[in-house]
Amino acid sequence: MATVPVTVTVNGTERTTEVEPRTLLVYFLRDQLGLTGTHIGCQTGQCGACTVQLDGEAVKSCMVLTVQAEGHAVTTIEGLAPAGTLHPVQAAFWEEHGLQCGYCTPGMVLTAEALLRDDPDPDDHTIRHAIEGNLCRCTGYQSVVQSVRVAATRMAEGAQPEPLLRRS
Amino acid sequence: MRRFDYASPATIDDALALLAGGDGAVRPLAGGTDLLTLMKADIATPERLIDIKRLAELDDAIALDADGLSIGALATLDDLEDDPLVRQLAPALAEAAAAAASPQLRNMATIGGNLLQRPRCWYFRSSLVHCWLKGGTECQARDGENALHALFDQSPCVAVHPSDLATALVALDASVRLRGPAGERSLSLGEFFAPPTDDRRTENVLAPDELILSVRIPPPADNARGTYLKAMDRKVWAFALVGVAATVARDGDRIGAARIVLGGVAQTPWRAREAEDLLVGQRPDADLFARAADAALAGAAPLADNGYKIPLARTLIRRALAAVTADGAPPA
């Protein structure tokens, strides 16, 4: 069966390629573009590890065909902040221990960032409702909610991406 | 997932032409959140998908006019959860959307696709079982593992309808506008959803070469309020064990009109007409709600493992009626 041409803007760069229609967005991102920050978890739309942003909204990239992203913009964890810097949401997860093993983190961060663009000052209920679709088996979610709360505060104060090296 | 071809037609007529005669081998694709799940599990094996999300004539608009609220088939569950008109005029729908799936799926899933999603019965969802709903001769759940299955027996299949929105929309007396090769038709959702039969092993009467264009909710009656309550086996992100949508219009200090619809108890949204009849003309109080809840479940015929749904449904009905008749609650 025929491949189809697709053009998708990924992290600000337009990418044109041929894909089999059955190619899931997560495989296009990982296998064709090498963007392995998007993790594969359950492949059934349950866990949220593969969350990316499609036109700024969080979606599960194992539940989206690449052809569905044709003409749209995708943001992965690699594109959230300029190379070598941490987005304020990433910095807040670092500082507030919003992760342990890190497997859910790219998806969790992209979900949180989309929430904060929509609602810059969410209460805890709103944060928990927003991350319902991102499973974390390490933290018990408490530190994740705290990270999002801190990120909201920092961003309200005008926080910008900061160099990663300063933290290591 | 098996290989398939993909087409992105420009017009609805082109899409309908591509769907015509496909009889299941050609399927429309919108958000894909249920279809891809079925295809990954080898339950649906289309040879070709027709992308209807790019059709200019099909939209996600939510608009109010004299006939009520019109919702384009491509409106996402996230749109419904947040839309001010839906929240004001059809809060049961906004609450049902917010309670469905997870945020990432709500950003992709459309109202049209949500109404067409297939049951979550584990026998139906297993490629190892050729159950009656998939064209076989036997419903394995009927005498098998049936904790999530139907209380009301309408069909050889005892799977329940999985849609939260469907339950709310039937309570809101909504209808769907459909378009097929012969033109357009409108059906109330009570007519649209129909238990599967030997000749039609789906949960609705949509033809394979027909598309949902929009959903319409009539203007709410004066003093009408509504809500949707959902019981799950965890707090969020699960299908309804039981869902209850209730809409009640007050007539002075009495109930003027009521609709009570149960999800998770039948192959289609289940209207509790006995309970509705019992409520009309009465003054709302806890005793009335309890009698209505009992009446709603009086005809239930539980299977071996799902009897727990009866007290669960009764409780949700009582709570929903209390919520929509409580003084001081926001009007709907």
Automatic annotation (TrEMBL), chain B:
Residue ranges of every copy of the FAD-binding PCMH-type domain listed in the record: 1-222
Alphabetically ordered keywords of this record: FAD, Flavoprotein
Pfam families assigned to the protein according to its UniProt record, in alphabetical order: CO_deh_flav_C (PF03450), FAD_binding_5 (PF00941)
Higher taxonomy: Bacteria, Pseudomonadati, Thermomicrobiota, Thermomicrobia, Thermomicrobiales
Source taxon at top rank: Bacteria
Protein name in the entry: Periplasmic aromatic aldehyde oxidoreductase, FAD binding subunit YagS
Gene3D superfamilies xref list: 3.30.465.10, CO dehydrogenase flavoprotein, C-terminal domain, Uridine Diphospho-n-acetylenolpyruvylglucosamine Reductase, domain 2
UniProt entry tagged with the keyword Flavoprotein: yes
Record GO terms (molecular function): FAD binding; oxidoreductase activity
This protein's record includes keyword Cytoplasm: no
